[in-house]
Specification:
The chain has helices spanning 21-26, 28-37, 52-55, 76-86, 104-108, 140-146, 151-156, 170-179, 204-216, 230-237, 252-260, 271-279, 325-328, 332-349, and strands spanning 12-16, 42-47, 63-66, 92-95, 113-117, 128-130, 187-191, 220-223, 243-245, 264-268, 282-286, 302-305. The protein has 350 residues and is an alpha/beta fold. Strands 3-2-1-4-5-6 form a six-stranded parallel β-sheet, covered by helices on one side. It has a six-stranded parallel β-sheet with strand order 9-8-7-10-11-12, with helices on both faces.
C-alpha cells in the first residue's frame, strides 16, 4: 500500500471500516465496486489497527489509516488527531458503521461528501444520507456495496456483489510451516471461536471428535483463532497427534496464509470463516443462532450446515431456551461425511 492519495490520481475516497474481522473482509466487495466504478480512484480505509494486516492483503486498498480507539470508547482526542491528519486528503467519505461516532472523523476532517445510512442522529455529520431498506439490502455485504453506488441504483437492488479475494504470501506460509512444525499431510482448518457468543459455537467436544476422525483418515488439523480461543484450542488438540493448536500463536495475516493452504475448513459463523472464504478454501460453515441468509460465506465453495429448527435463527448471544439444540444436535459424523465427500469430488476433478 502507498502513502496517501496523490493529487490528480483520480477521486480520493476514504472508507470508514467496520470493527469486526468478517465485516472487514466483506468490505472488500465495496472496495472492488469503487475501483470498477471509478477507474484511477485512490482508496483509503480508516479502521482499527488490528485490521491493517487484512487491508494489506487487498489489492484495491491504497492506504490503511489506524484509528486506535477501544471498543465502546469514544476517544475524542484520538478522533480529532486522526481527522487533522486527513484534512485536505480525500474528496469523499463512505461510513460503513451506523453509529454517530463513526461519522465524526470525516466530518472533522472536512471531507466534502460524506455518505452513510441515516441513523443515530447523524444529520449534521453526513451530507449524503441514505435510507436503509432492509428488505432490499438483506445482507451485510449488500449494504456495504450499496453505499458505493448512486442512490437510485442502490435503492433498486439487483446490483452485482464482487467476491472478496485476499492475497496469499507463499514465503510467509513456508516460514509458518517450519515454525509450527506442520506436517506434509493435507490440512483441514478448524475455527472454534465465536466472538459474538456461545449460541454461535459448535460444541468443542464435537470439534475434537471430528479432529480425531480426520487424523485417522490421514489429515492434519489446524485449529485457528485469537488468544481468547486458546483454551478452546487446547480442548480440541490436547494429546492428539497431527492436531495443532495455533490459537493466539499467529498473526491475523498468518491466518490468511495458513487457511489458504488448507484443503477445507470447518468453522462457526465467524470472522475467520470469511477470511477462509476469501482465500478460496472450501468452507463448511456451521450456523446455530445466526442465519446464512444474512452473513453467508462469500464463495461458491461453501457448504452450509444448519438444522433449521423452529427456534432458529434467534440471533441471541446465548440460547434463550438453554439447550442450544441447533448446535449440539449437529453431529460430528455429519461434518466428517461432508468433508470426505468433498475430498472424493476433488479427487475426481483433479
Amino acid at each position: 500500500m502507498t502513502e496517501g492519495a496523490a493529487p490528480g490520481a483520480g477521486e480520493r475516497i476514504l472508507v470508514v471500516g467496520p470493527s469486526w474481522v468478517g465485516d472487514m473482509v466483506m468490505a472488500q466487495s465495496l472496495f472492488s465496486t469503487l475501483e470498477a466504478r471509478h477507474p484511477g480512484c485512490r482508496i483509503g480505509v480508516l479502521a482499527p489497527a488490528w485490521s491493517l494486516p487484512i487491508l494489506e492483503r487487498m489489492a484495491e486498498v491504497d492506504e490503511g489509516v489506524a484509528l486506535d480507539v477501544g471498543h465502546g470508547e469514544f476517544g475524542w482526542s484520538t478522533r480529532r488527531r486522526v481527522a487533522r491528519s486527513l484534512r485536505g486528503r480525500f474528496d469523499r467519505a463512505i461510513v460503513l458503521p451506523r453509529s454517530w461516532k463513526s461519522a465524526l472523523v470525516p466530518f472533522l476532517a472536512g471531507i466534502p461528501r460524506r455518505t452513510g445510512f441515516t441513523g443515530e442522529q447523524r444529520y449534521g455529520l453526513l451530507n449524503d444520507r441514505r435510507r436503509l431498506d432492509k428488505a432490499v439490502l438483506d445482507q451485510t455485504v449488500k449494504r456495504f456495496v450499496a453505499l458505493g453506488l448512486p442512490a437510485a441504483e442502490a435503492v433498486a437492488g439487483g446490483f452485482t456483489v464482487p467476491r472478496p479475494h485476499l492475497a496469499v504470501d507463499g514465503g510467509n506460509l513456508a516460514e509458518l510451516r517450519r515454525i509450527h512444525e506442520l506436517s506434509l499431510r493435507p490440512a483441514i482448518g478448524m475455527m472454534p471461536g465465536a466472538e459474538y457468543g456461545p449460541a454461535k459455537q459448535w460444541p468443542l467436544a464435537h470439534f475434537r471428535t471430528l479432529a480425531e476422525s480426520l487424523v485417522a483418515e490421514g489429515f492434519e488439523v489446524r485449529v485457528l483463532g485469537g488468544p481468547k480461543d486458546d483454551e478452546a484450542g487446547k480442548t480440541i488438540t490436547e494429546g492428539l497427534a497431527y492436531v495443532h493448536n495455533l490459537c493466539g500463536r499467529t498473526r491475523l495475516a498468518d491466518a490468511v496464509d495458513l487457511l489458504a493452504d488448507c484443503r477445507q475448513v470447518v468453522t462457526n459463523d465467524s470472522g475467520l470463516m470469511h477470511v477462509a472464504a476469501a482465500t478460496g478454501t472450501r468452507v463448511h460453515a456451521i450456523y446455530g443462532s445466526s442465519s446464512p441468509v444474512y452473513t453467508p460465506p462469500l464463495t461458491d465453495s461453501a457448504e452450509i450446515h444448519t438444522l433449521s429448527l423452529e427456534c432458529s435463527p434467534c440471533f441471541a448471544r446465548t440460547c434463550p431456551l438453554g439447550h442450544t439444540r441447533c448446535l449440539t444436535e449437529l453431529s460430528p459424523q455429519r461434518l466428517l461425511a461432508a468433508v470426505l465427500g468433498t475430498e472424493r469430488r476433488l479427487a475426481v476433478e483433479e
